[in-house]
Amino acid sequence: xxxxxxxxxxxxxxxxxxxxxxxxxxxxxxxxxxxxxxxxxxxxxxxxxxxxxxxxxxxxxxxxxxxxxxxxxxxxxxxxxxxxxxxxxxxxxxxxxxxxxxxxxxxxxxxxxxxxxxxxxxxxxxxxxxxxxxxxxxxxxxxxxxxxxxxxxxxxxxxxxxxxxxxxxxxxxxxxxxxxxxxxxxxxxxxxxxxxxxxxxxxxxxxxxxxxxxxxxxxxxxxxxxxxxxx
Length: 231
Known about the structure:
One of its GO terms (molecular function) is phosphorelay response regulator activity. The chain is α/β, with parallel strands linked by helices. Helix content is 45%, strand content 21%. The protein folds into 2 domains: 2-123, 3-Layer(aba) Sandwich (Rossmann fold); 127-228, Winged helix-like DNA-binding domain superfamily/Winged helix DNA-binding domain (Arc Repressor Mutant, subunit A, Orthogonal Bundle). The protein contains 8 helices and 12 strands. The strands form 3 sheets. The protein has a 5-stranded parallel sheet with strand order 2-1-3-4-5, sandwiched between helices. The protein has a 4-stranded antiparallel sheet with strand order 6-7-8-9, with helices on one face.
């Protein structure tokens, strides 16, 4: 899973990032509210951990803006202020939970586990459907109009990311971090190779089942990344 930590206390940021990496989470960091908002809008995250007292844009404002954008990513607010009014304000802005500093690692991880369980609930349990494509998360297979396509584990992971974000451009770095994030022996150019292979498989299947002039399923957006159309 990939988290975004937004906090301007560098000592706390370094400590939390080390803990999260030890637990095998990928953790991006922003040190002020505006940078955090930009990263949250540009990336794909399973959880946002946001401090209330941020420079340039407060945690309350950041959360409210994301919710107004329609972003449903779970958000855990951090604050040194224990007043009930502050907790109510944070929750009313759209945060999912509220953790008061100082806190212990065990309590933090318990909150994270609870919130990330909701990610699966929000995304659905077993099936993802986009256009004529369906993806079975239990049997780990993909079908176009009921015709199943054989994919490797990495290809399936890419396909899942594309289908969860159909119509949205995914950056090459985002795909690499989500599929190969902890494999230090792999070059980031592997993304291009795997997307090429996956695209060929998808397009060949669609051409066979839907006819000659069907176009490509995964479009390369120059300078930005890849777009899954899911036609």
